[in-house]
Amino acid sequence: MSTLQVHVEGIGLWAPTLGDFAALKAQLRGETVDAPPTRPAAIVLPANERRRAPESVLLALEVADQAVAMSGRAASDLPCVFSSAYGDQSISDYMCATLANVPTELSPTKFHNSVHNAPAGYWTIATGCHAASSAITAGHASLGAGLLEAAALCMTEQVPVLLVCSDIAGHGPLGDMSGTRTAFGIALVLAPAITSRTLAHLDLALLPHAGHALHPSPSTGAWYEGNPVAASAWPLVQNLATGQGECTLAAAETLAMSVVLETAA
Amino acid sequence: MSVPIHPLAVSAFTVTSALGQGLESHLAALSTGRGGLRENDFSSAPLACWIGRVDGVEDAPLPAAHAMWECRNNRLAWLGLRQDQFLDCALDARQRYGAARVALVLGTSTASIGATEEGYRHLDEHGQMPPELRRPPIHAPHSLAGFVAEALGLEGPCLTVSTACSSSAKVFASAERLIRLGLADAAVVGGVDTLCDSVLFGFNALELVSPEPCQPFDQARHGISIGEAAGFALLERIAAAPEALRLLGYGESSDAHHMSTPHPEGLGAELALRDALARAGLRADQVDYINLHGTASLKNDEVEAALVARVFPASTRASSTKGFTGHTLGAAGILESAFALLAIRHGLVPGNLGCTHPDQACGPQLALVSEPREVNVALSNSFGFGGNNACLAFGRAPA
Q: Under the cellular component aspect of Gene Ontology, which terms does the record hold (chain B) (predicted)?
C-alpha cells in the first residue's frame, strides 16, 4: 500500500463561530471565543474587489491567507488546489432562478463568478501567483480528495502546496439538495520535507473498498454537521489542534484515506 | 524548473461531439472540412447564435440501474463511453488492475447544472425541486465523475477537475501524478460538458457569443460558438501498451491577471507551454502540430496567435478546431487532445475551419485547410476563465 508523507506548515480555518485556528484551539481548551464577523475578512483582496467578491471567494481566500501567513511562505510561489463540494451555491441559485424567469437578464458578473475555479482565479490574481492552480470537487469526499490531490502535487513536484477546502451555506431549492446550512473553510500549506516551519507530519494511506467505513455517523446536532465538508474535516481539525491522532477521511465514494498526524519534534 | 516525466501510454481514447459519435466520424469531418455547428435550437428561450449540439442525446436514456444519475450530461457521458470500445477497454483495465487501482479524473465546467435549471423551471407548489428531480447527487458539480465511477465500477481515487475551459486537459496531469506515485496503475481521464442555459445565456451576457458560426483567428471573428462533447482516454504505464500513442508531458500555470481576459502578452499561456515542453524533454522545433485553444474571441486569439508566432518555427503547423465543434468548454481539453492524437495516428493536420483572412498576429504556422502531414509530436492548448492554463504534449512510440 502506497503512503505519502507531507508536512504541515500552515493552517487556516473559518466557521461562523470560529474565525481562525487559534480560536479553535482556545475553544478546545474551554475558553469562550468570540464569533468572527459575518463576512470573512479576506484582506488579501484589494478593498474594491473585497466589496464585490462573492461569499465563496471571501471564505476560500480568508482561510488560504491564514494558512500561508502561518507558513511564512510567499503565496506567489505556491501551487494551489481549491476544493469545494458545491462551489458557490448562492450564485447557482440566483442563476437557475433568473434563467427560469428572465434568462436574457442574467448578470455577466454573476456568471463569471459562478465558475468553480473563481476562488483560485481571485487568489492567483491577488497574490501574483503564476504556479499551477486547480479547482476540484469530489462531493462529500471533497476534503479527502483535495488532500490527496495536493499531497500528490507536493510529492511529485517537491514543492510546498496550498490546499483550500471550503463551502458556503446553500440557498433556495438547490440548498435543499446540498444540505449545506453553514459555511466552513479549512486550508493547509503542505511541504514535501521537514523544515524549521514544520508544525506537524501527515502520513496518508489509501484504504480501498471501505464504503462501509465511510457512512456518516448518527447526527449529534453539532454545528459542523450543517456542512458536509466540515463534518468530514472535524476529526482532522481536532487532531491538528491537539497535535496528534489518527482519523479517516473519505477520498472517494468507497475509498478511505487514513491520516496519521504527529507533531513535529 | 520542471523535469522530464516518464511518458504514459494512451491505450484507448474516444470522443463524441457535434461531429458525431466516435473517432471515425471526427476523422472524416476533419479530413473533409465538414463542420458540425448549427443554428441554436437548444436554449429554453430564443437566443440567436450557433451551437455544436450532439444528436441523439435525448434518445439515449441511462440504463435503469443508473436511473438515479439520469440527466442530459450523464446521458452524453454514457453515450460517449460506449464509442470506440472504450467501455470495454476501461472494464478490461479494471479487471487487470483491480477496481481500486484505476483512478478516475474527469473535467467539467457545468456538470449537470442543466438538470438544476430544469428543476427551477418546474418547482413544485412549495417552491422546491420537483419530485422527479429530487436526486441530490445530480445537483452537484461532482455528478459526472460520481456517475462514471458507478458505471465503470471504479473504486480508486476519483476526482472532478473544474477549472472552466482547461478542466479536461488538467485531468492528464492529475492522473500522471497518481500513477507516478504508485497510488494507481491506470487512470480513466476525460471530460463532459453539455449545452445548458447557464453557459448560453452566461456567455451571451458577457457579449462573447458570435451571431454567426465562430471563426477562430479570422480578422472578422465575432466571438465563440458553444458546443458540447464527451471524451475519455485510458492512461497506463508504457509497459502495458508499448505500441500505443503517448502522453509525453503537460504544463500548468496561472495568468494572475484577470478573471475573464487573458494576460495581454500571453504570460501564463507561455509558462504552461514551456512547462509542457520541459516535462516532455522537447524543443519547440520538434513540435509538428499544435491544436490551439483558439476560441474565436477577439483577445484570446490575438494573444495565442502571437505566442505561436514567436515561439515556434514556420515548420510547426497549428490550428483551432473550434470552427468544427464549437467551444466545448470543460470538455474542450479532452476533445482537442483526441484531435492531437488523431493527427499523430493518421498524419493529418486539421484545418482551421472558419478562417479565410487570418488575424495579422498569426504566423505562418496557421493551417487554414486540412493537410496530410507526418505528425510525431502534437500539443494541445487549453486556457480557462480565472487565467487557468494547461498544455499537453502527445507523441508516438519510438519506431
A: cytosol
**Between B150, B156, B162, which is nearest A136 by CB?**
B162
Are B214 and B57 in contact by the 8 Å Cβ rule? The answer is no
Q: How confident is the model at residue A3 (pLDDT cuts 50, 70, 90)?
A: confident
* Contact assignment for A99 to B116 by CB distance below 8 Å: no
Q: What would the pLDDT profile of B208-221 be if each residue is shown by its tens digit?
A: 999 999 999 999 99
> Could you report the per-residue pLDDT of A133-185, keeping only the tens digit for each?
999 999 999 999 999 999 999 999 999 999 999 999 998 999 999 999 999 99
pLDDT of residue B1: 62
Residue A209 to residue A199: CA distance in whole angstroms = 32
Report the 10 Å Cβ neighbour count for B242.
Answer: 12
From chain B, pick out residues whose CB is under 8 angstroms from the CB of A178. 136, 139-140
Cell numbers of B74, please? Answer: 450523464
Q: Are B268 and A130 a contacting pair at CB < 8 A?
A: yes
Q: Which CATH number fits domain B9-395: 3.40.47.10, 3.40.30.10, 3.10.105.10, 3.40.50.2300?
A: 3.40.47.10
Query: What's the alpha-carbon Rg for chain A, to the nearest Å?
Result: 18
Regarding beta strands A200-207 and A244-250, do their DSSP bridges make them parallel or antiparallel, or are they unpaired? unpaired
Q: How far is CA A216 from CA A139, A140, A170, A207, B56, in A?
A: 14, 10, 20, 17, 39
Phi and psi torsions of A137, nearest 5°: -150, 150
Domains, chain A, with CATH or none: 9-197 (3.40.47.10)
Interface test with A, best of B144, B179, B183 (most A CBs within 10 A): B183
8 Å CB contact of A2 and B181:
yes
- State the smallest CA–CA distance between residue A263 and chain B in angstroms: 25
- CA nearest neighbour of A108 among B165, B121, B208: B208
- Rounded to two decimals, the ipTM of the complex is 0.98
